[in-house]
Amino acid sequence: HLTGKSAVVTGSSSGIGLAIAREFARAGANVVLNGIEKPDDMEKTRSQIEAEFGVKALYSAANMTDGDEIARLIADAEKAFGAVDILVNNAGIQHVSPIDEFPVEKWNAIIAINLSSAFHGIRAALPGMKKRGWGRIISTASAHAFVASPFKSAYVAAKHGIAGLTKTVALEVAQAGITVNAIAPGYVWTPLVERQIPDTMKARGLTEEQVKKDVLLAAQPTKEFVTPGEVAALALYLTSDAARSITGTTLSIDGGWTAQ
Ligand code: NAD
Questions:
Q1: Ligand 1 pocket mutation, candidates 94, 111, 192, criterion most atoms within 8 A of CB
Q2: What is the 175 CA–ligand 1 centroid distance (Å)?
Q3: Is the Cβ atom of 64 under 6 angstroms away from ligand 1?
Q4: Domain count, the chain
Q5: CATH code, 131
Q6: Does a structural domain hold residue 145?
Q7: Ligand 1 proximity of 193 Cβ (cutoff 6 Å)
Q8: Among 106, 189, 245, 252, which one is most buried in terms of CB atoms within 10 A?
Q9: Can 59 be counted among the known catalytic residues?
């Protein structure tokens, strides 16, 4: 249902963002990929999407810590495809540490990439969506938009912030044909989760298996990781006309984590 539409997905060089970009392309959208990635790997991903789904795909290396680069990413996408109909604010990083030892530069980077980048992207993309009277803004929040875990102060603060930003923007554009939502996954097996295992082992004094079973999946009643494809399917649904009345909400897809 996305033929003729264009989507920007930040942080789509791997994990959840890549699954969302591929799902949108499968549904017919032209996509702008983004992320911190080796140019050769990215070119492979980009050309594969074009070949597999018969859409146009571009890659932007815009750094999500930089508001000007984010504004340029949106402007370049509008120039190339004529519009940004769908914006997915997905780029994110994690750092695990007790707050009194939390590196200040990690705090600043997480707030910039996981929260402020959504502000900059929305700010740049909304005028075009308003002009066309149609738009879909989706941010990847987390179960950590609703509940906390120790040692993740910056991440939990940023994801709660995404839930608040989502509500606010939804109210501002409620009559403009634009919906604004967030998706709150539980643990999804991606490089982001894999990378935090060593620090969690150190912070809690556990083995790798204990971290997986007693820390990560302990929170998730299904005892299974959510898959990137499941998150992408929810994102695709939010872009459909059937979802036009869903706005200002953060939807859980977390194996029951936040039901507890
Ligand atoms: P990932 O590490 O596979 O992907 C992160 C993406 O963000 C990559 O494409 C990376 O290049 C990009 N990125 C990081 N820093 C960037 C920067 N400065 N500028 C531009 N791009 C940058 O991780 P993922 O698990 O797919 O995470 C995607 C989103 O999903 C994040 O917002 C994350 O917080 C959220 N999330 C993940 C989980 C999980 O369990 N994996 C759960 C809930 C929410």
A1: 192
A2: 31
A3: yes
A4: 1
A5: 3.40.50.720
A6: yes
A7: yes
A8: 252
A9: no
Residue to substitute in 46, 93, 230 for testing ligand 1 pocket (most ligand atoms within 8 angstroms of CB): 93
| Domain-embedded: residue 215 | no
In a domain, 95, yes or no: yes
Of ligand 1's atoms, which has the minimum distance to the CA of residue 112?
18
The amino acid at residue 217 is L
Report the predicted TM-score, pTM, of the whole model to 2 decimal places: 0.96
Confidence tier at 196 by pLDDT (50, 70, 90): confident
Cα 196 to middle of ligand 1, angstroms: 12
Asked whether residue 259 is assigned to any structural domain, the reply reads no
Domain with 183 in it = 6-187+227-253
